[in-house]
Protein backbone atom coordinates (compact mmCIF):
# COMPACT_ATOMS: atom_id res chain seq x y z
CA UNK A 1 0.00 0.00 0.00
CA UNK A 2 1.10 3.52 -0.77
CA UNK A 3 0.97 4.61 2.88
CA UNK A 4 3.60 2.03 3.76
CA UNK A 5 5.74 2.98 0.76
CA UNK A 6 5.76 6.61 1.92
CA UNK A 7 6.51 5.55 5.48
CA UNK A 8 9.38 3.36 4.28
CA UNK A 9 10.72 6.28 2.24
CA UNK A 10 10.17 4.40 -1.02
CA UNK A 11 8.15 7.26 -2.51
CA UNK A 12 8.17 11.01 -1.86
CA UNK A 13 4.53 12.03 -2.39
CA UNK A 14 1.17 10.33 -2.06
CA UNK A 15 -2.50 11.22 -2.50
CA UNK A 16 -4.50 10.01 0.51
CA UNK A 17 -7.96 10.42 1.94
CA UNK A 18 -7.87 12.61 5.04
CA UNK A 19 -8.22 9.65 7.41
CA UNK A 20 -5.15 7.83 6.08
CA UNK A 21 -3.21 11.09 5.72
CA UNK A 22 -3.68 11.99 9.38
CA UNK A 23 -2.64 8.50 10.54
CA UNK A 24 0.39 8.53 8.26
CA UNK A 25 1.56 11.93 9.51
CA UNK A 26 0.96 10.96 13.14
CA UNK A 27 3.17 7.89 12.74
CA UNK A 28 5.92 9.50 10.66
CA UNK A 29 7.78 12.65 11.59
CA UNK A 30 9.37 12.79 8.14
CA UNK A 31 6.10 13.49 6.25
CA UNK A 32 3.49 16.25 6.26
CA UNK A 33 0.15 17.06 4.72
CA UNK A 34 0.98 19.59 2.03
CA UNK A 35 -2.53 20.57 1.07
CA UNK A 36 -5.91 19.47 -0.31
CA UNK A 37 -5.86 18.15 -3.88
CA UNK A 38 -9.32 16.83 -4.75
CA UNK A 39 -12.79 17.85 -3.58
CA UNK A 40 -16.10 16.03 -3.96
CA UNK A 41 -14.63 12.82 -5.39
CA UNK A 42 -17.09 10.34 -3.87
CA UNK A 43 -20.48 9.25 -5.11
CA UNK A 44 -23.20 6.97 -3.83
CA UNK A 45 -23.87 4.15 -6.28
CA UNK A 46 -27.10 2.19 -6.06
CA UNK A 47 -29.15 -0.35 -8.01
CA UNK A 48 -32.75 0.66 -7.52
CA UNK A 49 -34.91 3.47 -6.16
CA UNK A 50 -32.62 5.75 -4.14
CA UNK A 51 -35.48 6.67 -1.81
CA UNK A 52 -35.36 3.08 -0.55
CA UNK A 53 -31.64 3.20 0.33
CA UNK A 54 -31.28 2.39 4.03
CA UNK A 55 -28.00 0.43 4.33
CA UNK A 56 -24.82 1.73 2.71
CA UNK A 57 -21.52 -0.04 2.17
CA UNK A 58 -18.42 2.05 2.78
CA UNK A 59 -14.68 1.41 2.82
CA UNK A 60 -13.18 0.86 6.23
CA UNK A 61 -12.24 3.95 8.21
CA UNK A 62 -14.15 6.48 6.11
CA UNK A 63 -15.82 8.25 9.03
CA UNK A 64 -15.93 11.65 7.32
CA UNK A 65 -17.81 10.20 4.35
CA UNK A 66 -20.29 8.56 6.75
CA UNK A 67 -20.96 11.92 8.39
CA UNK A 68 -21.46 13.60 5.03
CA UNK A 69 -23.82 10.86 3.83
CA UNK A 70 -25.89 10.97 7.05
CA UNK A 71 -26.23 14.73 6.80
CA UNK A 72 -27.26 14.74 3.13
CA UNK A 73 -29.36 11.57 2.99
CA UNK A 74 -31.33 11.19 6.25
CA UNK A 75 -33.04 7.99 5.08
CA UNK A 76 -29.72 6.12 5.54
CA UNK A 77 -30.01 4.05 8.70
CA UNK A 78 -26.82 1.97 8.80
CA UNK A 79 -23.38 1.64 7.27
CA UNK A 80 -21.48 -1.58 6.68
CA UNK A 81 -17.71 -1.21 6.54
CA UNK A 82 -16.30 -3.30 3.74
CA UNK A 83 -12.88 -3.76 2.20
CA UNK A 84 -12.36 -1.75 -0.97
CA UNK A 85 -12.15 -4.94 -3.03
CA UNK A 86 -15.45 -6.28 -1.70
CA UNK A 87 -17.54 -3.14 -1.79
CA UNK A 88 -19.25 -3.72 -5.14
CA UNK A 89 -19.91 -7.36 -4.29
CA UNK A 90 -21.98 -6.24 -1.29
CA UNK A 91 -24.10 -4.08 -3.60
CA UNK A 92 -24.51 -6.73 -6.26
CA UNK A 93 -25.27 -9.40 -3.67
CA UNK A 94 -27.93 -7.25 -1.96
CA UNK A 95 -26.10 -6.98 1.35
CA UNK A 96 -26.38 -3.20 1.06
CA UNK A 97 -28.69 -0.86 -0.85
CA UNK A 98 -25.90 1.46 -2.00
CA UNK A 99 -22.15 2.00 -1.70
CA UNK A 100 -19.98 5.06 -1.31
CA UNK A 101 -17.10 4.94 -3.74
CA UNK A 102 -14.67 7.12 -5.61
CA UNK A 103 -16.06 8.64 -8.80
CA UNK A 104 -13.32 6.93 -10.85
CA UNK A 105 -14.53 3.54 -9.64
CA UNK A 106 -18.17 4.42 -10.29
CA UNK A 107 -17.24 5.34 -13.86
CA UNK A 108 -16.17 1.74 -14.45
CA UNK A 109 -19.48 0.26 -13.23
CA UNK A 110 -21.99 2.49 -14.95
CA UNK A 111 -24.72 -0.14 -14.67
CA UNK A 112 -25.34 1.37 -11.24
CA UNK A 113 -26.90 4.79 -10.88
CA UNK A 114 -24.88 7.25 -8.84
CA UNK A 115 -25.30 10.61 -7.21
CA UNK A 116 -22.92 13.00 -5.47
CA UNK A 117 -22.18 12.35 -1.83
CA UNK A 118 -22.94 15.98 -1.00
CA UNK A 119 -24.25 19.16 -2.53
CA UNK A 120 -21.64 21.16 -0.61
CA UNK A 121 -17.87 21.06 -1.06
CA UNK A 122 -15.68 18.79 1.04
CA UNK A 123 -12.07 17.63 0.69
CA UNK A 124 -11.69 14.07 -0.56
CA UNK A 125 -7.92 13.73 -0.93
CA UNK A 126 -4.82 15.53 0.29
CA UNK A 127 -1.19 15.44 -0.78
CA UNK A 128 1.21 13.96 1.75
CA UNK A 129 4.86 14.69 1.07
CA UNK A 130 8.24 13.80 2.52
CA UNK A 131 9.42 16.95 4.29
CA UNK A 132 12.93 16.82 2.84
CA UNK A 133 11.60 16.24 -0.67
CA UNK A 134 9.30 19.27 -0.28
CA UNK A 135 12.43 21.47 -0.14
CA UNK A 136 13.82 20.30 -3.50
CA UNK A 137 13.65 21.59 -7.06
CA UNK A 138 12.22 18.22 -8.06
CA UNK A 139 9.21 18.91 -5.86
CA UNK A 140 8.73 22.35 -7.41
CA UNK A 141 8.79 20.61 -10.82
CA UNK A 142 6.25 18.10 -9.53
CA UNK A 143 3.95 20.94 -8.38
CA UNK A 144 4.17 22.61 -11.80
CA UNK A 145 3.34 19.35 -13.60
CA UNK A 146 0.58 18.58 -11.15
CA UNK A 147 -1.00 22.02 -11.67
CA UNK A 148 -0.97 21.52 -15.46
CA UNK A 149 -2.78 18.22 -14.93
CA UNK A 150 -5.30 19.93 -12.61
CA UNK A 151 -6.12 22.46 -15.29
CA UNK A 152 -6.84 19.68 -17.77
CA UNK A 153 -8.80 17.49 -15.36
CA UNK A 154 -11.11 20.32 -14.35
CA UNK A 155 -12.33 20.45 -17.96
CA UNK A 156 -15.38 18.13 -17.91
CA UNK A 157 -14.86 17.04 -21.53
CA UNK A 158 -11.27 16.05 -20.86
CA UNK A 159 -12.17 14.27 -17.62
CA UNK A 160 -15.02 12.41 -19.32
CA UNK A 161 -12.62 11.26 -22.03
CA UNK A 162 -10.10 10.01 -19.45
CA UNK A 163 -12.82 8.23 -17.45
CA UNK A 164 -14.27 6.83 -20.68
CA UNK A 165 -17.75 8.15 -19.90
CA UNK A 166 -20.10 10.51 -21.67
CA UNK A 167 -19.82 14.11 -20.54
CA UNK A 168 -23.46 13.89 -19.41
CA UNK A 169 -22.46 11.22 -16.86
CA UNK A 170 -20.44 13.91 -15.09
CA UNK A 171 -23.21 16.54 -15.22
CA UNK A 172 -24.31 16.14 -11.58
CA UNK A 173 -20.82 15.31 -10.26
CA UNK A 174 -18.97 18.19 -8.61
CA UNK A 175 -15.46 16.76 -8.46
CA UNK A 176 -12.82 19.46 -8.47
CA UNK A 177 -9.05 19.12 -8.71
CA UNK A 178 -7.28 21.76 -6.65
CA UNK A 179 -4.05 23.48 -7.68
CA UNK A 180 -1.15 23.66 -5.25
CA UNK A 181 1.25 26.50 -4.72
CA UNK A 182 4.97 25.93 -4.41
CA UNK A 183 5.17 26.67 -0.70
CA UNK A 184 4.17 24.70 2.38
CA UNK A 185 0.83 25.41 4.07
Question: Rg from C-alpha positions?
Answer: 17 Å
CATH architecture of the largest domain: 3-Layer(aba) Sandwich
CATH topology of the largest domain: D-Maltodextrin-Binding Protein, domain 2
Backbone shape? globular
End-to-end Cα distance? 26 Å
CATH class descriptor name of the largest domain: Alpha Beta
What is the number of helical segments per DSSP (H or I, 4+ residues)? 7
Overall pLDDT confidence: 91
Total separate domains: 2
What name goes with the CATH superfamily of the largest domain?
Periplasmic binding protein-like II
What class, by secondary structure content?
A: alpha+beta
Largest sheet: 5 strands, mixed
Spans where pLDDT lies below 50 across 5 or more residues? none
Number of strands: 9
Keywords summarizing the entry:
alpha+beta, D-Maltodextrin-Binding Protein, domain 2, 2 domains, 4-stranded antiparallel β-sheet, 7 helices
Structural write-up:
- The structure is a single chain.
- This protein is of the alpha+beta class and 185 residues long.
- The protein folds into two domains: 2-39 and 124-177, 3-Layer(aba) Sandwich (D-Maltodextrin-Binding Protein, domain 2), CATH 3.40.190.10; 42-116, D-Maltodextrin-Binding Protein, domain 2, CATH 3.40.190.
- It contains seven helices and nine strands, in the order H-E-H-E-E-E-H-E-H-E-H-E-E-H-H-E.
- The strands form two sheets. Strands 5-4-6-3-7 form a five-stranded mixed β-sheet. The chain has a four-stranded antiparallel β-sheet with strand order 1-8-2-9.
- Strand 4, helix 3 (63-72) and strand 5 form a beta-alpha-beta unit.
- The longest helix has 17 residues, at 137-153.
- The mean pLDDT is 91.
Amino acid sequence: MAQWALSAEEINVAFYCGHIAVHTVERNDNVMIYGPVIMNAEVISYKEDFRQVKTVGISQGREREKEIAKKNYPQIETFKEVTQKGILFTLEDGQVDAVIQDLTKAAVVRQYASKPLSDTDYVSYVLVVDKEFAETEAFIDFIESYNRAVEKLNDKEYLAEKLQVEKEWLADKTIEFLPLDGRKE
